[in-house]
Design a protein that fits this description.
The chain has 144 residues and is α+β, with helices and mostly antiparallel strands. 18% of the residues lie in helices and 26% in strands. It has a domain of 74 residues. A hairpin with a 2-residue loop joins strand 1 and strand 2.
């Protein structure tokens, strides 16, 4: 025999400029699972299922927000009785790649490496454009 449904919260759905009556959310415990859903048609098709009431509330939230109503068409769900939707744990982050082992340089390898050369310009700077030298014709035109 299943237990009687327990009132756990409400959702308010807006009908145009009017705020509708609150829709009650009820918790049903059957064995090891819990389910949360409204009892009013057509909203009773959204059923959150979980091992605990908080997991069922999180599942209901996800299904309700994935429904056809946009966020400005309803308010809630507003939980009562200490229910706090339990968000699922994020997947574990992939392990960071291990850096390659750097071998320390010995005196013989340091001598074989050429010393770093200093460049006159920073590596990110573009070379300055060269201006063309004045030609002989322009020099002759300047003289009277």
């Amino acid at each position: 025999m299943s237990a009687l449904p327990e009132f756990v919260g409400t959702i308010h759905v807006f009908f145009g400029p009017y705020r509708g009556n609150p829709i009650g959310l009820y918790l049903r415990k059957e064995g090891d699972s819990c389910s949360i859903s409204p009892t009013v048609y057509p909203w009773n098709r959204f059923v959150g299922v979980g091992e605990t009431a908080n997991k069922a509330a999180a599942d209901f939230d996800a299904k309700w927000k994935g429904g056809e109503l946009t966020a400005d068409m309803y308010s809630g769900p507003h939980w009562e009785g200490g229910i706090k939707p339990e968000k699922p744990k994020p997947p574990p982050k992939p392990a960071a790649p291990k850096p390659e082992a750097v071998t320390p340089k010995t005196e013989s390898t340091r001598a074989a490496d050429p010393p770093p050369t200093a460049s006159p310009e920073p590596s990110g700077a573009a070379p300055a454009p060269e201006s063309p030298a004045p030609s002989a014709q322009t020099a002759k035109q300047d003289q009277p």
